[in-house]
């Protein structure tokens, strides 16, 4: 895809597919956590491997930063097309409402799996730890935290739009911003964008380096590295929508981004302790600084590499990719308690870890897709979550009647 082929009215099939893939990789990511060499997950399998934690690391480095970069581009596109109130209405219906409706249901399902697993392990109610005390700084957002962070970033985009428009009345400010955006496209871009994130990671107390950007799932105020890392990606995505021609340049630099991501990612992994790390906060300031710098570069380089590869290989229309992209939102919402339940079912089996991982991923993905097809895609829920309801059977095209 060249810059001349990028039409603002054309659906960005590659980025749409990549956004769906980033959400669906959450199934693999969470499924791998029960097979870590050191137990960190609620469900600990009998079979453990450093390959499982290595797989988690690779996915975790690029997945959510890539998602937020694409989300920023699509958000700016929608804001330009629908206007402020149309954008706010759409995001309220499609993002805020699902968070409000499904958060409690998902949390109760997770708790039910925890109780079930505890009973299988022979734990009695008296042995259970006391429930935590919750307030606005300690709310279990679960894996749906990304919806809450999206709402924060959407609000920031709407609020900042007015002063930007005031500064850009003659277009000079916008042209300067567009030139700055273009200047960040190249192998040097991840170093520039990664620098603020590296500082935020270095300053983060009790940072466990293996997990990169700490997941902002435990309160209404996201941690600073998450706000910096995901916020910068979202903002840069919004700026890319102003310069859609730069997507072709990202695609051209794709191999360089991929090589940079591999080198910086391997460095970050080794500094963090390797694929079988000691999962404890870093204490040495110098080592922490080098590790944070490596993560900053790796996270943005891998996100740009993923975008470049998607533009190169997924830019054409594909009914399968479109279907999976539509289904990915529902799959991500419901997958975590299903993954945990599947992990409980297989945890004592004697099969190799990779076979159990494949079984968990396939089973959860199959069940989630079936529920999407039967309950969501062709119902009013499909219009709610995907913006459109697909009829069960498309009407046959009307026969052509020859003119008399």
Automatic annotation (TrEMBL):
<feature type="transmembrane region" description="Helical">
    <location>
        <begin position="139"/>
        <end position="160"/>
    </location>
</feature>
<feature type="transmembrane region" description="Helical">
    <location>
        <begin position="50"/>
        <end position="74"/>
    </location>
</feature>
<feature type="transmembrane region" description="Helical">
    <location>
        <begin position="223"/>
        <end position="240"/>
    </location>
</feature>
<keyword id="KW-0012">Acyltransferase</keyword>
<dbReference type="GO" id="GO:0016746">
    <property type="term" value="F:acyltransferase activity"/>
</dbReference>
<feature type="transmembrane region" description="Helical">
    <location>
        <begin position="327"/>
        <end position="347"/>
    </location>
</feature>
<feature type="transmembrane region" description="Helical">
    <location>
        <begin position="180"/>
        <end position="203"/>
    </location>
</feature>
<feature type="transmembrane region" description="Helical">
    <location>
        <begin position="252"/>
        <end position="272"/>
    </location>
</feature>
<dbReference type="Pfam" id="PF01757">
    <property type="entry name" value="Acyl_transf_3"/>
</dbReference>
<feature type="transmembrane region" description="Helical">
    <location>
        <begin position="95"/>
        <end position="119"/>
    </location>
</feature>
<dbReference type="InterPro" id="IPR002656">
    <property type="entry name" value="Acyl_transf_3_dom"/>
</dbReference>
<protein>
    <submittedName>
        <fullName>Acyltransferase family protein</fullName>
    </submittedName>
</protein>
<feature type="transmembrane region" description="Helical">
    <location>
        <begin position="292"/>
        <end position="315"/>
    </location>
</feature>
<feature type="transmembrane region" description="Helical">
    <location>
        <begin position="21"/>
        <end position="44"/>
    </location>
</feature>
<feature type="domain" description="Acyltransferase 3">
    <location>
        <begin position="13"/>
        <end position="364"/>
    </location>
</feature>
<dbReference type="InterPro" id="IPR050623">
    <property type="entry name" value="Glucan_succinyl_AcylTrfase"/>
</dbReference>
<keyword id="KW-0812">Transmembrane</keyword>
<keyword id="KW-0808">Transferase</keyword>
<keyword id="KW-1133">Transmembrane helix</keyword>
<keyword id="KW-0472">Membrane</keyword>
<feature type="transmembrane region" description="Helical">
    <location>
        <begin position="353"/>
        <end position="375"/>
    </location>
</feature>
């Amino acid at each position: 895809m060249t810059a001349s082929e990028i039409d603002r009215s054309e659906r960005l099939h590659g980025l749409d597919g990549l956004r769906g893939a980033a959400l669906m990789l959450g199934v693999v990511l969470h499924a791998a956590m029960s097979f870590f060499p050191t137990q960190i997950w609620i469900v600990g399998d009998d079979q453990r491997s450093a390959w499982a934690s290595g797989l988690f690391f690779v996915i975790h480095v690029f997945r959510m930063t890539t998602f937020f970069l694409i989300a920023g581009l699509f958000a700016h596109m929608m804001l330009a097309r629908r206007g402020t109130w149309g954008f706010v209405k759409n995001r309220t219906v499609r993002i805020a409402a699902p968070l409000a409706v499904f958060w409690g249901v998902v949390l109760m399902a997770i708790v039910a799996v925890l109780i079930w697993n505890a009973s299988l392990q022979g734990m009695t109610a008296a042995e259970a730890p006391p429930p935590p005390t919750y307030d606005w700084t300690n709310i279990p957002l679960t894996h749906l935290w990304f919806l809450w962070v999206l709402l924060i970033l959407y609000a920031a985009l709407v609020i900042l739009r007015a002063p930007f428009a005031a500064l850009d009345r003659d277009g000079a400010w916008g042209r300067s911003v567009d030139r700055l955006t273009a200047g960040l496209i190249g192998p040097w871009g991840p170093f520039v964008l990664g620098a603020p994130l590296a500082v935020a990671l270095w300053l983060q107390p009790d940072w466990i380096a293996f997990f990169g950007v700490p997941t902002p799932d435990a309160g209404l105020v996201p941690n600073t590295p998450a706000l910096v890392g995901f916020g910068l990606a979202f903002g840069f995505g919004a700026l890319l929508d102003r310069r859609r021609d730069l997507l072709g340049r990202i695609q051209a630099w794709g191999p360089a981004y991929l090589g940079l991501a591999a080198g910086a990612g391997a460095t970050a992994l080794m500094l963090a302790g390797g694929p079988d790390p000691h999962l404890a906060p870093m204490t040495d300031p110098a080592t922490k600084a080098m590790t944070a710098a490596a993560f900053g570069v790796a996270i943005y380089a891998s996100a740009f590499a993923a975008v470049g590869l998607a533009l190169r290989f997924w830019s054409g229309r594909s009914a399968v990719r479109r279907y999976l992209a539509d289904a990915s939102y529902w799959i991500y919402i419901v997958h975590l308690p299903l993954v945990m339940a599947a992990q409980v079912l297989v945890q004592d089996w004697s099969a190799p870890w990779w076979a159990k991982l494949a079984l968990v991923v396939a089973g959860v993905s199959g069940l989630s897709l079936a529920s999407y097809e039967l309950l969501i895609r062709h119902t009013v829920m499909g219009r709610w979550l995907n913006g459109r309801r697909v009829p069960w059977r498309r009407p046959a095209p009307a026969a052509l009647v020859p003119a008399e």
